[in-house]
Amino acid sequence: xxxxxxxxxxxxxxxxxxxxxxxxxxxxxxxxxxxxxxxxxxxxxxxxxxxxxxxxxxxxxxxxxxxxxxxxxxxxxxxxxxxxxxxxxxxxxxxxxxxxxxxxxxxxxxxxxxxxxxxxxxxxxxxxxxxxxxxxxxxxxxxxxxxxxxxxxxxxxxxxxxxxxxxxxxxxxxxxxxxxxxxxxxxxxxxxxxxxxxxxxxxxxxxxxxxxxxxxxxxxxxxxxxxxxxxxxxxxxxxxxxxxxxxxxxxxxxxxxxxxx
Length: 261
Hints:
Blueprint: H1 13-18, H2 27-36, E1 42-46, H3 54-57, E2 63-68, H4 71-79, E3 88-92, E4 106-110, H5 118-128, E5 135-142, H6 148-158, H7 170-176, E6 180-187, E7 191-196, H8 197-203, H9 217-231, E8 239-253
Parallel strand pairs: 1-2, 1-4, 2-3, 4-5
Antiparallel strand pairs: 5-8, 6-8, 7-8
Helix pairs in contact: 6-9, 8-9
């Protein structure tokens, strides 16, 4: 399996549950996103997951519409802090056929756009953006982990994504295809995040290509054991110190690419 064929993994309750173990976005990210917002102070978050972007953004703007195809993810998001805010509207639907109504002063996509049909989704975003508003593509990552190379070997051995490439940049790929005009990019400063090793291991099962539902119980246990072995020497009392960062690439979908859609 590869690419968008794995998107259905997010429908699994186990994936939604494992999302709780993903590290939070750095606070600096939301300061940056807030600076990108133009009038109206309304944000569209596509592929919202459990609202890791949408819920904090709702504290800073007039309205956030969070589009997420997985009902399990939305249910999880509603139970998490800020998930019941009156100005946060959850839309359980695919981004390619979203019923959201603009204009929006910012559209965000946090590690989600690659699961969607890019041409159809970007065409829809282009129609919903206010003048001078941008689409911000957000990626969250661990910063310079000493066990990265060994971890990649474990992931490659178990991932269901046959095209897995840890260095792949979706915004750059879309720009090369003439679908996205990049205006700017930024990476936040690393922030230390401490997490139990068991939770760090579990968060891998929140990804579409490493969902427990795609593995036998034996394979899932072997994956967990391999990751545990990789990080063991870095544990302190069962905890891992993890520098986290986020990158943002912002710009506009290219109107000329969608004239026939």
